[in-house]
């Protein structure tokens, strides 16, 4: 059986954050129920498939908004449609403002063994600028509830490059996160996306400079590594044995199926994108119409470029011998000039037959990796 990862998009939020350009809409119980009914119909289309699921990820949006009675039929439908590995990583994204004792207990009953909490910052002023609906104090209570009543495998999301953020406030966020003893931490630099409230109002804010953002990145790397975290991907750190199996599968170029409105899939050498409209998605599913808005069959050369692009994001880089055997493609030969350019400038290195980014390349990784596309 083919091994895949499964992503399920839950596009509902209490309110949209000021920086967010992901597809999401306000939560209402009735619309959520209709959406879940359509989602279960989509899942039922995969019955009798040849796939073996190694990880399941409920993302959004805010999947933690869903009640126990909404999640039960969804989880049951996933189990009917796919053979789930008994050791599969099953993740739920959660907003700290939504987490309570009952939900933590429910998630354990439903089989979630990893909870990813969107903390973003431990500074209330920064949270306000981001449009988050939780306070810094809420994060600690949420982590404690999840760890005590659901799972010890807790991931925190943090953000740097926030308006008015300083090295002192970033240092405090990192220390506060470490005090909560998460097993995993993801951190991304704030990106101003077109037509988001923060993009529109950017002239009213003072953002950290690019040099300051770079300093924040390496401050984080140093602090987390000193506290036992492994920097296993450009933006991700984990304690030993707790790296995200789901995300690592993406970076290894493996196949995945995305379910729901705005979800993306990659299988059978085809990239597939579902429509980004909940109501149209519901109507089409119930009328047995296609929910695909775009799909593209890629050739082997495109796939190889994807695997290089994604593989260089991983700290261990690309095993050159394994890559040659798997793809019949010699990176050192095909990209000789690119490798010479970045190795001479100190941005790429080959260690123990692994091609990888150097430490100084991590913050400007996109500029390096894009040469392989």
Provide an overview of this structure.
With 373 residues, this protein is α/β, with parallel strands linked by helices. It has 2 domains: 250 residues, Aldolase class I (TIM Barrel), CATH 3.20.20.70; 62 residues, Arc Repressor Mutant, subunit A. Helices cover 40% and strands 24% of the residues. It contains 15 helices and 17 strands. The chain has a 9-stranded mixed β-sheet, with helices on both faces. Strands 12-13-14 form a 3-stranded antiparallel β-sheet, with no helix packed on it. β5, α3 and β6 form a beta-alpha-beta unit. α2 runs parallel beside α3. The two termini are 30 Å apart. The model has no long low-confidence stretch (mean pLDDT 95).
What would you call the structural class? alpha/beta
Summed up, the domain count is 2
CATH superfamily grouping of the largest domain: Aldolase class I
Strand residues, percent? 15-25%
Distance between the termini: 30 Å
Average of per-residue pLDDT values:
95
CATH A-level architecture of the largest domain: Alpha-Beta Barrel
- CATH class of the largest domain equals Alpha Beta
Tell me the major beta sheet: 9 strands, mixed
Rounded to an integer, what's the Rg over CA atoms? 21 Å
């Amino acid at each position: 059986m083919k091994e895949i990862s499964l992503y399920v998009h839950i596009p509902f939020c209490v309110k949209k954050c000021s920086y967010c350009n992901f597809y999401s809409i306000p939560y209402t119980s009735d619309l959520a129920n209709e959406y879940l009914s359509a989602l279960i119909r989509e899942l039922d289309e995969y019955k009798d498939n040849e796939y073996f699921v190694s990880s399941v990820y409920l993302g959004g949006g805010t999947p933690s908004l869903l009640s126990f009675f909404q999640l039960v039929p969804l989880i049951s439908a996933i189990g009917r449609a796919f053979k789930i590995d008994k050791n599969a990583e099953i993740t739920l994204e959660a907003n700290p403002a939504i987490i309570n004792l009952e939900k933590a207990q429910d998630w354990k009953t439903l089989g979630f063994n990893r909870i990813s909490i969107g903390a973003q910052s431990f500074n209330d002023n920064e949270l306000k600028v981001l449009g988050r609906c939780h306070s810094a104090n809420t994060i600690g209570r949420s982590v404690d509830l999840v760890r005590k009543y659901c799972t010890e495998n807790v991931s925190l999301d943090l953000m740097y490059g926030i308006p008015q953020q300083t090295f002192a406030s970033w240092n405090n966020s990192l220390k506060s996160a470490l005090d909560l003893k998460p097993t995993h931490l993801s951190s991304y630099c704030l990106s101003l996306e077109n037509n988001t409230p923060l993009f529109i109002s950017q002239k009213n804010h003072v953002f950290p400079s690019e040099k300051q953002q770079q300093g924040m990145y390496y401050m984080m790397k140093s602090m987390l590594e000193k506290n036992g975290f492994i920097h296993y991907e450009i933006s991700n750190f984990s304690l030993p044995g707790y790296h995200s199996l789901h995300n690592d599968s993406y970076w290894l170029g493996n196949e995945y199926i995305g379910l729901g409105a705005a979800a993306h899939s990659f299988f059978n050498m085809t990239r597939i994108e579902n429509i980004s409209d909940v109501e149209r998605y519901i109507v089409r599913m119930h009328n047995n119409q296609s929910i695909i808005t775009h799909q593209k069959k890629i050739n082997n050369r495109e796939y190889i470029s994807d695997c290089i692009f994604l593989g260089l994001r991983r700290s261990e880089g690309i095993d050159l011998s394994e890559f040659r055997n798997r793809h019949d493609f010699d990176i050192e030969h095909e990209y000789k000039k690119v490798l010479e350019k970045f190795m001479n400038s100190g941005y790429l290195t080959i260690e123990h037959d692994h091609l990888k980014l150097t430490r100084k390349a991590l913050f400007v990784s996109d500029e390096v990796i894009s040469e392989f596309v």
